[in-house]
Amino acid sequence: MLSFVFLICCILVAIFAYAIAPDSSENANQMHLSIHSKSPGFKVTLLTIPVALEKQSSISSFFLGSKNADTEIPISDFSVTKEGLLVTEYAGGETKGLEKLYPLQLFPKVTSIDQIAPNYISNKTFYWGTDKYGRDLLSRMLIGIRISLSIGFVAVFISLVIGITLGSIAGYYGGKVDVVIMWIINVTWSIPTLLLVIAITLALGKGFWQVFIAVGLTMWVEVARVVRGQVLGVKEQQYVTAARALGFNNFRIITKHILPNAMAPVIIISAANFAGAILIESGLSFLGIGAQPPMPSWGGIIKDHYSYIILGKPFLALIPGLAIMSLVTAFMLIGNALRDALDVRN
Q1: Gene3D superfamilies per the record (predicted)?
Q2: For 102-116, 135-149, 272-286, which range has the lowest pLDDT when averaged over its residues?
Q3: Confidence band for 133, pLDDT divided at 50, 70 and 90
Q4: Domain that holds residue 71
Q5: What are phi and psi of 315, to 5 degrees?
Q6: Burial class of residue 66 in the structure, from the number of CB atoms within 10 Å of its CB (0-12 exposed, 13-18 middle, 19+ buried)
Q7: Is 339 exposed, middle or buried (0-12, 13-18, 19+ CB in 10 A)?
Q8: Are 54 and 70 in contact (CB under 8 A)?
Q9: In this structure, what CATH number is given to the domain that contains residue 288?
Q10: pLDDT in tens, 203-254
């Protein structure tokens, strides 16, 4: 139950990611290079420079992030002059940053220079620190959960469609049909999963949806084998023989009588495949052939920061690593619970 509640929370976070994330820009890609690789809880003063607005619906902004993200500049000091706002850019440590003057014309909502500071200068806290590009790590993690959950849903759906179809056909018809399908299953099974995913990804090209398809096309084998075994046992039951005697066609017998009584193990496998899909996607992103920058992905975040483990800032790689571990563990625990709940011996 704890894992189920955790997964529900993760799904809600994925849906409302941009509403929750401190950085609501598209892909949480607001960079501040002067404050890169800062520890959790880092605070800094930011000057916001408005940009020209681009037409975007509120629904698009809610689900895809804001394309009208203003430019944020970390500063260490500022003063108001007759010409405009004079700021000292943040440089870190005892080093003094460059001084730059921003005229009143850059701030459209103010009528006097004294109104610039209250409206366009604010203090911001990076609760999980910043990555090597100065982006808010918390925002990147919140939006990155969409990749992990969506890859699980889509990959499992594809594997179920292919696996249940081929497994039920092989188990029900038997004979040469079963031999051909089992040959395809055994050949696919013999190829290392990650190697096959990489080959399919390279054939389809790098990208978001290509990874979904590649992972889904490699996870159907186990589903097909289990469904075939279940169908072989269920099709000998008396109610299936009665259905044949009543003249029902094969499609109805398979879908209405056999599959509903053979799906319990498939549900358990789906939970395990969900966890496996998340791990495969993280591995592909780590190798650079998964979700492409600037799209946030937990595996991609680890790829960008694994070297920081020995550079004194391990949190940059440990945070996404723990997130992946927690999500995979939750799915595995749910799979174990489903196995116990659906076990007739209990």
Answers
A1: MetI-like
A2: 102-116
A3: very high
A4: 42-126
A5: -60, -25
A6: middle
A7: middle
A8: no
A9: 1.10.3720.10
A10: 877 777 778 888 888 889 989 999 999 999 888 888 888 988 888 898 899 8
